[in-house]
Amino acid sequence: MTYEEVRAGQQTPRDPPDDQVSAGPPSARPYPPSDAAVLDWLFADHPVALSVYDTSLRCVRRNPAMARLTGAPAHDTWFGRRVTEILPGPQTAAWEARMRQVLATGDPAPATRIRSRVSASAGSERSLSVAAHPLRGPDGTVTGLCLTAEDVTERNGSPDRLALLNEAGTRIGSTLDVRRTAEELAEELVPLLGEWVNVDLLDTLLKGDEPGPFTGQVALRRVANHSVRPGAPEALLQPGEVDFYPPHSPAVRSMTAGRPVVHLLTDPAAQAWLRDQPPRADSVREHGYRSIMSLPLRARGTVLGVTVLLRSREQPFTDEDRLLAEELAARAAVCLDNARRFARERSAVLTLQRSLLPSRLPPLMAVETASRYLPANGAGGAGGDWFDVIPLSGARVALVVGDVIGRGLGAAATMGRLRTAVRTLADVDLPPDELLTHLDDLVDRSAPVDDGSSADAAELGATCLYAVFDPVSGTCAAARAAHPPPFVVTPDGEAGLVRLPPGPPLGLGNGVYESAEFELPEGSLLALYTDGLLEPSDADLSLRRLCSALSHPPDALEAVCDHVVETVVPSAHADDVALVVARTHTFDAEEEATLDVPDDPAAVATARAWAGERLARWRLDELGFVTELVVSELVTNALRYGEPPVRLRLLNVDTLICEVTDGSNTAPHLRRARLSDEGGRGLMLVAELTQRWGTRQTRRGKTIWCEQSLPRKTAAARAR
Length: 720
Hints:
CATH class of the largest domain: Alpha Beta
Radius of gyration: 40 Å
Strand order of the largest sheet: 8-7-6-11-10-9
């Protein structure tokens, strides 16, 4: 029965038919006299305050106990009025939304504590415990609801306050996010204790500095605010903005004293503050605020900021309000401090992580590269994923990705050590399998020793993939240590995994690693990544998505990275993601020249003349003198101290590379000859005359190499 039906004369508010109010199971028969007597008693003498509302949430009946509870005059009628009109107060609007939910779902709303003036003329507020129960008709449909209420104002406040604190404790600090934690505190305080709340934190603290004495103006950054009036808050400061509060403001005074400060806004102290803040004073008058409470946010002996509550109710903040707000603020302060510490540590880890990763990839003729690094979104913090692109001798290039086990600063620092170790071992020009073997030994020796003093001594471990691409032969050699294999996209757009021999993680000790060699024609795409790119629950599905994302890639490698991140990376990835894509370029046969040198000292002159002719063909006559001298020294040393076969190779790429290979594994050493020595100056001359030089071991000997910069006009022409 609705209010409109009553107005149409189908029933009177004082004498409704019995079958319109049902508090028990639906029944198709009329109420017997005994049920009617119970119903009369409920609405005449029952001590529990109750009222009945129709589907429009308008009151159709109440009992005397409800009238006494709310302090309504005997002649006052609630008929046709809504609960927000009967019990004024900011919390009743939220309660009315709960009543609508009861009508929609048919599920009762358990007892909830609200604060309200018990009548429009009452000058004080009461605490009411209210509950709502659905009423059903004969066919089982919800025809209205019954609301019960109980006055809990005069009870001992401790149990009620403890219940509220326990309930709030489950909602405040649900994340390690400073802003969300502040919003959760604001949502608990409003409309429970006030109509407006703002949570401000010290700007110096958020920047990583320790708070100093509050002697002058204090910079506070708004983190959260909340109001019972959507769209009309006292929002002079939006979240993220900074304001400066004078020393005599309630906010600064509460932080200085370390305890709540409560004022009526008509008090001289509050008026003195508002006089210096005309916009805030106008907002206070506009919204009718009457009292203010400032609560310092303190955790572990440090003042983090302040929470300010404003109330427009006639009754000012009571001691019970202050105690409850103080407890909520204290609990929230610990959560805010935890979130702040986590954010600071995460920022430090990310700063260290990014400083240890390459800021930009080097431009190389052998490969065109692009990369992405995404830190983890989870609460565990950033991990130890890394990547690198390392130029090697002979115009070759090494591509590396790795993942350190663990999170936080330790993982980031370990990642930095491993990346440095990989670059050092790459400079020695070790094959991929040998490099991983040395790296495994390094990680094993770096692991912490459990001497029994710590029961949870963490083991250090990592995964790694190391690949070397040779643009002259168009081949790539790679080895992996428990790392996902790379993807190769052929020039026609077909993508597939490279089958590499598996190897154990780094750090186990005595690891055995094997290399595999595969062809990479001109324009092939090689993609290396860490396991953060894969969904842990379904890695096979992630691999298929990655294969699809890499198939027929766009020309721009940055677009390839963006497409992979958008389509493959999990939305809430709890692990770091590192991705490196490289498009290969092979050299023309005209850019390489090779000469087999016979085992005869007279062949040195032949090699020198051959090098001069080749430079003339390449129009690099400016480098002829130095190149002939370098060839003479290196070939002489190979014939004198090495073993056959001896081979001379020149590469005309982004630099001029000269290589001499022989069958001996004995590596030369640079030394300074004394004035009386007749020899020992050859390698020193090579080092002085060339840009850089070095040696690398091969399967059947060694190679001594050196590089010279091309003339400026030649380099500029190639750049165009």
